[in-house]
Design brief:
Layout (H helix, E strand, L loop, with lengths): L1 H25 L4 H30 L5 H22 L3
Length: 90
C-alpha cells in the first residue's frame, strides 16, 4: 500500500505543477485570479471526493470502496474523452 501512496504522490504533484503552468499561460491577463480559481476548485474537488468517498464507505463498507474509485475513474476518462472530442487534444 505504501508504494501505491508514493507513486500517487509523484503523479499528483506533477499534475498540479503542469496544470498551474498551463493555466498561467492561458490566463496571461489575470494570472492571480486564475490561480485563485484553480485553488478554489481544487479544494472543491477534494471536498466532493471526500464526501462521496465517505458515503460509499458508509453504505458499502470497506471491502467495496474500490467500486467508488472505479466509478470516479470512469467519470474522469469520460470527461477527458469528451474534452478531446470537443476541443481537441490541447
Amino acid at each position: 500500500m505504501m508504494i501505491i501512496v508514493i507513486v500517487w504522490r509523484f503523479i499528483h504533484t506533477g499534475g498540479f505543477i503542469i496544470n498551474q503552468n498551463w493555466l498561467a499561460s492561458e490566463a496571461s491577463e489575470a494570472p492571480e485570479f486564475a490561480n485563485s480559481l484553480f485553488v478554489s476548485f481544487s479544494n472543491l474537488g477534494i471536498a466532493i471526493g471526500t464526501a462521496s468517498g465517505g458515503q460509499f464507505l458508509l453504505h458499502m463498507g470497506t471491502h467495496q470502496i474500490i467500486w467508488g474509485g472505479l466509478m470516479f475513474l470512469a467519470l474522469a476518462v469520460i470527461g477527458m474523452v469528451a474534452k478531446i472530442k470537443w476541443y481537441g487534444f490541447l
